[in-house]
Amino acid sequence: MGTTMTQHPESKDSQAEKKPGIIRVEGMHKWYGDFHVLKDLNLAVDQGERIVICGPSGSGKSTFIRCINRLEEHQQGRIIVDDVELTDDVRHIDSVRREVGMVFQHFNLFPHLTVLENCCLSPIWVRKVPRREAEAAAMEYLERVKIPDQATKYPGQLSGGQQQRVAIARALCMKPKIMLFDEPTSALDPEMIKEVLDVMVELAGSGMTMICVTHEMGFAKTVADRVIFMDGGEIVEEAPPSEFFSNPREARTQKFLQQIL
Amino acid sequence: MKKQTIDSRPAGPKPWYDPRVRALVFQVISLAVVCWAGWTLIGNTLSNMESRGISTGFGFLDESAGFGIIMHLVPYDATMSYGRTFWVGLTNTLLVSAMGIVAATILGFLIGVARLSSNWLVARIALAYIELIRNIPLLLQIFFWYFAVLSNLPSPRQSMEVGGALFLNNRGLYLPGPITPEGFGLVWGAILLAIVAVVGVRKWAKKRQMATGKIFPTVKVSVALLILLPLLAFVIAGLPLEWELPALKGFNFGGGISLIPELAALWLALSLYTASFIAEIVRSGILSVSQGQTEASKALGLPNGLTLRLVVIPQAMRVIIPPLTSQYLNLVKNSSLATAIGYPDLVAVFMGTTLNQTGQAVEVVAITMAVYLTISLLISLFMNVYNRAVAIKER
After folding, report:
1. Chain B closest CA to A166's CA: distance in Å?
2. Fewest beta carbons less than 10 Å away: which of B24, B110, B130, B328?
3. Between A100, A128, A170, which is nearest B214 by CB?
4. Per DSSP, which regions of chain B are E strands?
5. Are B358 and B364 in contact (CB under 8 A)?
6. How confident is the model at residue A11 (pLDDT cuts 50, 70, 90)?
7. Mean pLDDT, chain A, as a whole number?
8. Distance CA A211, CA A75 (A)
């Protein structure tokens, strides 16, 4: 892994201008009707940092990262992404979404477009990149996720692991500053999990700012700078992986780790 | 080397248990029954008609019809033939069907989208419209518009009028008709040129976007071209257009363009009724595209309009088109309810008056049925071709 990460030119640049607090979440609350889903969340992520969020199901982890690109609305507190605060202003939301890529549990590729068209859609219509350039860039990213030979196929023709790698390439084509992963391996067959994790590890090595909701503790141990444990809509514990796995402070964290490890 | 094939399969079943033999036997029996029924039917009809002295054949189409028709798109008067009444009826049917399909499609799409609006009031109004209209029989709605609404308009002498040019009364709506003297050809030319220009601009804009990434405001420019070019030609040609105003002559208006209340009532009822079904089809089509697709599109930074245009609608269309075709077919066939209010469509004129006067029931009914069948099959064919064009390959 160490050798692959230094091959990418971006890694040096992003290391050079590490920006503190590219994501700032301050006292954020969210309700679904009367149900208090997210309670007083605070988080600051620096550029190039890799965060893993884990926790039992229903703890609000997915809802939390979906708030960061405003797929969900928060009702109280502030979320500031790359100096833009998420408010009701559509222009703010659109500009944040341009800089934040997202990978979903169920891939959500567009079934009516080929793999290459999936990757080019947003660069062409949002970044207004000429088609030829967009396609060339998309092919580079498809090579990076190791499926350039599938470019002319439709998503329905690919395996789950391949689809998820296309989804990662599609998000990268927008050249985002931040990548959000919402349980990217949870819908995959066991033998396909590794190929997706390999791509994510490689991406982490290139200096991308990443927030991953995942149950892959091996991934958390090797890649994460910090692990966040959520339960009942709160951040219960936050620690570097070495500390988090060997020496968890909170009882709830200990119980969770016992169950999954 | 000696090669020997031994059929090691167990012996086949008795012939009457063999599905292939059974299928063949049933087919032969069905064919025989159909042939016998057809033969009997034709033989019976012919002998009955002969015993009553009814002549067969299509000679009656050349005889003079001798009755008037209130609305005709092809030249017609009472001295013309029964064959001519067929064309009058057919063109009237096609007119109301085409007008109905266009109006129902536009209205249906609008209401279908409104039904999904996040605006509570808009969504509720759309819902109320759909539930009210699609649950009342179409014939009742035709009667409603004809007898309850349009018949209660004032008589010709008390017409509602707008600026002495537009008159509305219980005989219809009267509009000024354009008279196009020489020189107007320039305007037609300009319209044609504008259409060609729009096609050209669209192609060029797409090519340029692919090459440089710049997005051209195609729709705005197209609309401007379509309006400005003909207008410019019109002014250059020295405003070569006169209007013939409708005027009261005797008991009714003459001159200009008129829309008879029978057509208006039928058109309104058909459009509104079919639109309520199309609205539901459009809604189901849009809802069939999963929420995840919209989320993925938004997460990629595509704004709402582009998400709808590039992601949702292409996927919704494949669900919408097949049932939409059925609605178009229904509308064309439902237009035969025209008979109830006296709109001179194919059924009212040809299968009604012409049949009554000539007594050639078999021929007239056969022609009419063949016409509806042909129209329906043509619409199906067209929609299938379109469906194939928008269908998603996926694999």
Report:
1. 13
2. B24
3. A128
4. 160-162, 166-169, 172-175, 177-179, 242-244, 247-249, 252-254, 257-259
5. yes
6. very low
7. 89
8. 22
- Distance CA(A144)–CA(A248), nearest Å, equals 36
Partner residue opposite B213 with nearest CB, options A100, A124, A155: A124
Q: Cα–Cα–Cα angle for B230, B234, B235, nearest 5°? A: 125
**What pLDDT does residue A17 have?**
57
Burial label for B79, CB within 10 Å (0-12, 13-18, 19+), is exposed
Three-state secondary-structure class, residue B249: strand
A180-200 residue pLDDT tens: 999 999 989 888 999 999 999
The 10s digit of each residue's pLDDT in B255-286 is 777 888 899 999 999 999 999 999 999 999 99
> Which residue out of A110, A152, A183, A211 would a mutagenesis test of the B interface target, given it has the greatest number of B Cβ atoms within 10 Å?
A110
Residue B8 counted as domain residue: no
The secondary structure of residue B339, as a DSSP letter, is G
Name which of B286, B347, B275 is nearest B316 in CA terms: B286
Contact (Cβ atoms closer than 8 angstroms) between residue B332 and residue B375? yes
**B91 vs A44, B84, B94, B96, CA distance in Å?**
72, 11, 5, 9
CA B156/CA B160 separation, integer angstroms? 9
Whether residue B304 is contained in a domain is answered as yes
- A154·B213 Cβ contact <8 A: no
Dist CA B92 CA B96 (whole Å): 6
Which residues have a Cβ under 8 Å from the Cβ of B85 and sit 6 or more positions away? Answer: B65, B67, B69, B76, B349, B350, B353, B354
- Domain limits at B333? 56-152+255-364+385-395
Mean pLDDT on A77-105: 92
- Provide the pairing of β-strand B247-249 with A50-54: unpaired
Does residue A2 have a pLDDT over 70? Answer: no
For residue B374, is it within any domain?
A: no
CA–CA dist B271, B327 (Å, integer): 11
Identity of the residue in B211, B292, B297 whose CB atom sits nearest the CB atom of A130: B211
Which residues, other chains included, contact B382 with Cβ-Cβ below 8 Å and sequence gap of 6+?
A: none
Domain count, chain B: 1
E-strand stretches of chain A = 23-32, 35-45, 50-54, 76-81, 84-85, 100-103, 178-182, 209-213, 226-231, 234-239
pTM for the full predicted model: 0.76
| Residue contacts between A and B (CB atoms, under 8 Å) | 89
Both structure tokens of B363? 């021929």
Residue B51 lies in a domain: no
Which residues from chain B sit within 8 angstroms of residue A132, using beta carbons? 210-211
Q: How far is CA B334 from CA A180, A246, B43, B147, in A?
A: 54, 76, 33, 19
What's residue B166's pLDDT? 80
Task: Find the CATH number of the domain harbouring B299.
Answer: 1.10.3720.10
pLDDT band at A243 (very low <50, low <70, confident <90, very high): very high
- The predicted complex's ipTM stands at 0.88
Q: Which of B208, B298, B300 would you mutate first to test chain A, the one with the most A CBs within 10 A?
A: B300
User: Could A129 and B215 be called an inter-chain contact, meaning their C-beta atoms sit closer than 8 Å?
Assistant: no
